[in-house]
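Sorry to interrupt, but I need a hand with the structure work. Could you write out one complete protein record for me, on any chain you like? Just paste the record in under my message, thanks.

. . .
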Amino acid sequence: MRNGAMMAIDMDNSIRRKMARHPNILFRRKTYWLRRVIRYALRKIDGVPAELGQTFKPSWNSFKDHAGQLQRDGFVFVENFLNESDAEILRRNWPGSRYFVPISPDEDHKTSDKGYVCDFGKPVFDTAKSPYMWKLFQMFLDDSFTNEVGALCGDGINRYPYHMLAQNSFWGSGLAPHRDSVDNRYTNKINFIYFVDANGSGWEAGGTAILRSNNFDNPIFVPTNLKNSCLFYYSESELFHGFPTMKIGKFRNNVIAHFCAK
């Protein structure tokens, strides 16, 4: 487990096996090393103008007024998260697949490509080659944003994004319903998924749902709008979250941030 990354618990093993055996996921798992080498080579020859993205300073629309719903339900979905012009810039400049780590051969329940890890404010990626992502992460790290997260939680606890990353999801990607493990090093956790872009809605395109149990039979909430929207939910909760395998031809780009007490 990387620094602040959480482990998934209480999963249905039959759902995990089914996700791992999806034809596209199985192919990607078997070609992991080839994909990793090719992507590494492409990153080495990639050139990004030094001035690219330097003026990008994303801003968000206030979400603290949703505090009542978060405290009542344990989760809240927010649309129009970024100012639309900023959201469009981020969509147009979303990094190519070469900047993401392919699905590993042993991955069976979070079947998306991952990248842009940032732990405790320290990016584990080349910020010069990915200025838009880094500017977005800097927004999450800013005191004004963390103060708004605190206002949303409404409990007087100051929180900090201790772990962030980005994901690319595609045909066959899925997230087995699970709860997050408890780690006493990080307390009062709330998770945040920012849906940057997708070419579908709901489960067909990877809408992460809030669920009553470790299957997809009785969802509490399934997001439909997966463009410039976000989902906050308490990590230390009895609720589950996940999404079934995505439909053919669909994609989803998103960012995840885990907040904990400072």
Summary: Residues 32-45 form the longest helix (14 residues). The chain has seven helices and twelve strands. The chain has a mean pLDDT of 93.
